[in-house]
Amino acid sequence: MPAQPCQCYHCGEPNDPRRPYTADVLGETRHFCCPGCQAVAEAIVENGLQDYYQFRTEKAEQAQPPDEELLSRLNMYDDPQLQEDFVISSDNDKEIQLTVEGITCAACGWLIEKQLSRVNGVRQVSVNVAQRRAWIRWSGEHTSLSALIKRLGQIGYKGFPFQADEHEASYAAEQKQFIKKLGLAGLMTMQVMMLMAAMYFDLLDNMSAQMEQYFHGVALILTTPVVFYSGSAFYLGAFKALQAKTVNMDVPVTIAIGVTYFAGLKATFSGNGEVYFESICMFVFLLLLSRFAEHRSRHRAMQISSNMLQYIPMTATVCDNGGYHSCLAKRLKTGQTVMVKAGEVIPVDGVICEGRTHVDESMLTGEFTPVGKDTGDNVYGGTLNHRDTVLITVTKALKYSLVNQILRLQSQAMATRPRLARAADQLSQYFVTAVLLIAGVTYWYWSEHQPDEAIWITVAVLVATCPCALGLATPTALTCAVASLNRQGVLVKRADVLESAAACSILGLDKTGTLTNGKFSVVDCWYHSHWNKTDILRAMATLESRSEHPIASLFDRNDILPLSDFNIVPGFGIKGTVDGKTYRAGSRLFFSCALPDLAFEANIYLSCDEEIIAAWKISDTIKPGVKDVLRSFSGLKKVILSGDTQASVSEVAEQLDIDHYYFQQTPEQKLNTVKQFQFDKHKFMMLGDGINDAPVLAGADVSVAVGNATDIAKSSADIVLLSPRLDTLANVVALARRTTSVIRQNMVWALAYNLLILPLAISGMLAPWMAVIGMSISSIIVVFNSTRLLR
């Protein structure tokens, strides 16, 4: 058996004879000094790059072995106690949301999904590129959380459990880097453009060769930091794509920048040839600008999402051995008893074991009427205890509460990418591949016929067909459209959603708080002819003075009478004695006596000694202008999705001339209804305002939240109307259609330009400087066309 070589095949350092590390390279077994060098060699072979070892001129630096401290930190994530805060367990499967740093485009999401899906035990992976989150479900028996995070690190991404504060800090750090790179690129672009303008237009008259080379040298110095610092994001994106054996828009961008820069570098030092430093700087600056706009919209969305924590209290009052003490709400366990006083937020899901009260569940249901709760009734974390102190037995830990279930449902829906988005990514890959193939064939042809001109003709092809205008066609139009909407009081969190808004065929509408004001008012009333109206209203006000129901605010409590024997009958009404007479107020089910035959459908009655003396129809009022706004959507089918009763929903639908409505719908049922419409090939736009609307907002093709919406609804929505009025919604749809038209014009121009200029570049008739000018003009035309959306 041959002796083990004494030097590492990769780096040349001495091998450890006690610990042999080997790998097959170039058909032979090679020996390495450490696992780090062994891993690098295996990666080189796996990616088909082993020719590196044939053509290298010197040994590589020693690869660093795995960071033991890092491995130790990753292993901490497998601690069951630590996982209690952010891992959801269901049978043998586990779920988690990870914040993922380094995501720049849809290709990153595709790469992460493909790589993690290959890990044994991973059931499902969905990446939300806009919010830089990954939702993962895996089998705890086959893999671990630390292994998943480690795998993310191996493909160039840093992942950690999602926490709102850390996620926000990550965004802030990335934004700071964006500003530095963008600022540098912008500053250097202005300087280089001034230098090159002097040369192109010979502003200094008869510029000597020495002065020209001096200008080239200064331009090179100014361009170098733009190429290696500002443009680094493109190279990283290209590297990740190639590592995943695919291509994205960053690949031709990287090649164009690299070839043009190094060709200019050679021309500068040789004094022979053309340079195009101003084009490099402008190219990098414009692409960075579009990406920064996208980053800013994601940042604003995350600021809204972080406010969702306000619905869950930090602490809870636990009843233990006859005493009370405070503890963290997230540490509560099933079976514990907590005390919730009037006005406090219920910390977790549970069952009332002592007391009765009314609970405001509007943050869950979107309906503002407090719900009566008695012993044995379920209550939910994040809802508000309105009336009395109650004791609650915990039935679910905080992370399994209804609020968190809705949030997880929202995240999963947002991570599901529509079919059109995947098709667009695939089309982009075909375009990039075609550009690279054409450039490669061009270089091969001219190297056979005119070797001295091959590199310059190839540069002309790369620059002329560089997807700058194509890359700006969509983001510039969307950025201008978003800016225009911002001036109108509309916040667009995902600019690309405007493309989908123009194609929507169905408008889904929540009722309470969206179409209506969410506050009760008297629609109609009836008073007994033998009674004085003032006496009736005074008696009603006296009864309601002891009630916490929102309806009580409809009656003047300043002029009331003495009240005794007051009692609340949950779910039915109230009763008491006023001036020796027994009064009852409530729904029709509260009365055993005959009800009057009225011209309207009353929902609140008042009786005196078993005789009905008054009746009211109390309802939520429709927001001003809603009917006119909905009438403007003549091309959209309108559907109401509400958790309210059939009577209330049908009444609103009739007033607004809406034929299709769904009532008493849970958040899951709303989402399933939308999915059914989408299954039938309809594009669905959803308008909502409550936490119960969050999943359906996330699942709709386009989601809109009104200004009075909860923060969770705003977080889920693509578009937020800063005003509670719906007037601006019509402008959103109109501008979305204009934006789609402008994007199509930009795409047609960008593709037409490439098809027109490509034959000239390939034939050698187009000099590189002409390609630069053509590319710049093409980009300027696209930008100018997009700015029309600002008018």
What would you say this structure looks like, in words?
- This protein has 791 residues and is an alpha+beta fold.
- The chain has 6 domains: 1-65, Ribosomal Protein L24e, Chain: T (Roll); 75-162, 2-Layer Sandwich (Alpha-Beta Plaits); 174-305 and 416-478 and 746-790, no CATH class; 313-400, Calcium-transporting ATPase, cytoplasmic transduction domain A (Distorted Sandwich); 485-516 and 633-738, Rossmann fold (3-Layer(aba) Sandwich), CATH 3.40.50.1000; 517-622, Calcium-transporting ATPase, cytoplasmic domain N, CATH 3.40.1110.10.
- Helix content is 47%, strand content 19%.
- A 7-stranded mixed beta sheet has the order 17-29-28-27-18-25-26, with helices on both faces. Strands 9-8-10-16-11-14 form a 6-stranded antiparallel beta sheet, with no helix packed on it. Strands 19-24-23-22-21-20 form a 6-stranded antiparallel beta sheet, covered by helices on one side.
- Helix 11 crosses helix 16.
- The longest helix is centred in the N-terminal third of the chain and has 37 residues, at 164-200.
- It is elongated.
- The protein starts with 20 loop residues before the first strand and ends with a helix.
- Residues 63-71, 300-309 and 416-421 have low confidence and may be disordered.
